[in-house]
Specification:
Elements (H helix, E strand, L loop, with lengths): L4 E4 L15 H12 L3 E5 L4 H11 L5 E3 L4 E5 L2 E4 L3 H14 L15 E3 L5 H10 L4 E5 L4 E5 L4 H12 L6 E5 L5 H5 L3 E4 L5 H5 L3 E2 L4 H12 L7
Parallel strand pairs: 1-2, 1-9, 2-3, 9-10, 10-11
Antiparallel strand pairs: 3-4, 4-5, 6-8, 7-8
Helix pairs in contact: 1-8
Length: 231
């Protein structure tokens, strides 16, 4: 059979949001997919460097999409930047000036986005972005709030990987849990929302599972197993 490509979120998908601990059984199940000939690529709101390191130590495909699609790490020395961090930093300063409790989240250094603590009214900030005509988008990954350049999301970031690796959308299986994963769902023929997803996120996926986070990944792979033979 033709190899499939799993596009997999990290926080809330193979980890529990907040704790950051990886479900090792889920990672092992994903590594098995890689070992039998499929691609497993992490697509995350975290830095692409973190995701790339996870691919090395986790034994999955060595390319990663981070910063909600803003940055792709191809190897230790090559990063493809799709977003504009200056735009995001300028927007952050404007939002911080007008809205209380807007603070940056301590994270690995970012190359294309600004990451904020979930300590303020996101809808108020989105309204401010519209009023000021700022060329950015705000999103909530459940792990953090993110400021990204307009037009950048997990879907556009992963499409760059698809072009680079000659992957067809018919062969993509996306797995995620939050609203930031919906653009990724839209570029995949098969998309799976986990049990910890909101009802809206579930409505945007082609299939759902009842188990949460890493256990949900395992449930999803078990459901797909009859269609996934060794390549």
């Amino acid at each position: 059979m033709k190899p499939k490509t799993f596009a997999v979120d990290i926080d809330g998908t193979i980890t529990e949001n907040g704790g950051g601990r990886i479900n090792l059984d889920a990672l092992s199940a994903l590594r098995h997919m890689k070992n039998i000939g499929h691609n497993v690529i992490f697509v995350t709101g975290r830095s692409s460097v973190e995701a790339y390191l996870l691919s090395i130590f986790g034994g999955t495909t060595r390319i990663a999409v981070g910063e909600n699609g803003g940055c792709i790490t191809v190897n230790t020395n090559e990063h493809i930047l799709l977003g504009n961090i200056q735009q995001c930093q300028q927007a952050f300063q404007i939002i911080k000036k007008d809205i209380d409790n807007v603070v940056e989240k301590p994270v690995f250094p970012r190359m294309t986005e600004v990451v904020l603590e979930r300590t303020f009214d996101l809808n108020m900030a989105k309204q401010l972005v519209l009023e000021k005509n700022l060329d950015v988008l705000l999103s909530d990954s459940q792990y953090a709030f993110h400021i990204n350049s307009r037009g950048i999301d997990k879907g556009t970031g992963f499409q760059e990987v698809m072009k680079r690796l000659s992957i067809s959308s018919d062969d993509v299986i996306a797995i995620g849990d939050s609203a930031t994963d919906i653009p990724l769902f839209k570029v995949a023929k098969t998309s799976i929302a986990l049990g910890n997803s909101t009802e809206y996120v579930k409505s945007q996926a082609t299939m759902t599972v009842s188990a949460k986070s890493g256990d949900g990944v395992i449930e999803a792979l078990d459901k797909l197993a009859p269609k996934l033979s060794e390549v």
